[in-house]
Specification:
Elements: H1 8-24, H2 38-47, H3 52-68, H4 74-80, H5 89-95, E1 98-103, E2 109-114, H6 120-126, H7 129-155, E3 162-167, H8 173-193, E4 198-204, H9 210-217, H10 223-226, E5 229-231, H11 237-243, H12 273-281, H13 299-302, H14 315-326
Parallel strand pairs: 2-3, 3-4, 4-5
Antiparallel strand pairs: 1-2
Helix pairs in contact: 1-2, 2-3, 5-6, 7-8
């Protein structure tokens, strides 16, 4: 079933969820790294097939997690640990390589995860398990706090999902068992606290042994997510290029991109980021990312059916977003 289209009936459910959230003041003390706007609420509803009770419970659990995660809350954690520049990042990238790189043909950020290069034993020689888990959390948060808003601003269109590539070249069963529990934990966080943010997952270089691995993993994944998965062995190039422009795909994956210093975290979210983050930490802006296109749109009031990612801005609005992105904001109080 197509859950992406907001039909009149689903808009009514969205209105009910908004009313509940407001009446219960569910987000009163929410730490506003991101906006819990109509699009965000709709993601939670889609993740629970527009079942109001289930979506509300999911949202409430997410908000509580954001307030208490790691005993300090997500805002504090995100200030203490920059997902793109923390002391152990180079070491982590060598032994647990996962990064964002440019965008696909639909404007979605591309997230590349080289599972074949994961070495848990070497990883924990340079970072504690606790710190590594925190790096996974802030990396997940960066998608909705900075990456998606930036690609939306660049395209002038609300984009709320990423394109994910998992490269299994060199991946073995022994590696899987080493990372299994951590992968389960990360998968749980992704599905429950960042629902509906993956548009497509392409698994490449899948070895023969992946059949056994997939048999273990598949039951842990929501059926909507499973429907977005494509699995290839070494014949993946055509599938990737159907989704991603060659100039945006690393040479190592069959594309034409060879960024100076390596294809890691190249994208519009990095433009002006150092200044934005400093301003946010200093309390001079409400959030670390740029405004998310469409976050001020009242989907219910407009009484239309929107398909995911189809709110389009005209040229003047696009320029206004870009201007706002480049300006130094005046002091803005940050919610506690």
């Amino acid at each position: 079933m197509d859950w992406d289209t907001l039909t009149p009936q689903r808009l009514q459910v969205l209105e009910q969820l908004k009313r509940q959230v407001q009446e219960e003041q569910l987000l009163k003390d929410e730490q506003h790294l991101v906006s819990f706007d109509d699009h965000t609420l709709a993601r939670f509803l889609r993740a629970r097939s527009f079942d109001l009770k289930d979506a509300h419970a999911m949202l409430a659990a997410c908000v509580e997690w954001r307030r208490t995660v790691e005993g300090k809350g997500l805002t504090t954690l995100y200030k203490e640990m920059d997902p793109f520049d923390f002391p152990e990042r180079k070491h982590v990238s060598q032994h647990w390589p996962m990064y964002f790189h440019k965008t696909d043909k639909f404007g979605r950020p591309v997230n590349i995860q080289a599972f074949g290069s994961i070495n848990v034993g070497e990883l924990f020689k340079g970072i504690t398990p606790e710190r590594h888990w925190q790096s996974i959390i802030v990396n997940a948060e960066s998608l909705i706090a900075e990456v998606l808003p930036a690609v939306s601003a660049e395209r002038g269109q609300h984009i709320e999902q990423a394109m994910v590539i998992i490269d299994l070249k060199g991946f073995s069963l022994s590696q899987f068992w080493q990372m299994k529990s951590l992968a389960q934990r990360a998968l749980y966080a992704s599905q429950n606290y960042y629902p509906e943010t993956m548009g497509k997952l392409i698994i490449i270089n899948a070895p023969v042994t992946f059949t056994a691995i997939w048999k273990f993993i598949k039951p842990l994944i929501h059926e909507r997510t499973v429907s977005k998965v494509e699995i290839y062995s070494s014949n993946y190039k055509e599938a990737l290029l159907a989704q991603i422009p060659a100039e945006n795909l690393p040479v190592s994956l069959g594309g034409q991109c060879s960024c100076p210093g390596g294809c890691s975290n190249a994208g519009p979210w990095m433009d002006g980021r150092t200044e934005r983050r400093a301003q946010w930490i200093a309390g001079q802006r409400a959030r670390p990312g740029v405004p998310w296109v469409g976050e001020d749109v009242d989907l219910v009031a407009q009484s239309k059916s929107y398909n995911v990612g189809t709110i389009q801005l005209d040229e003047a609005e696009i320029e206004a977003v870009k201007a706002q992105q480049s300006q130094t904001p005046s002091a803005v109080p940050v919610s506690a």
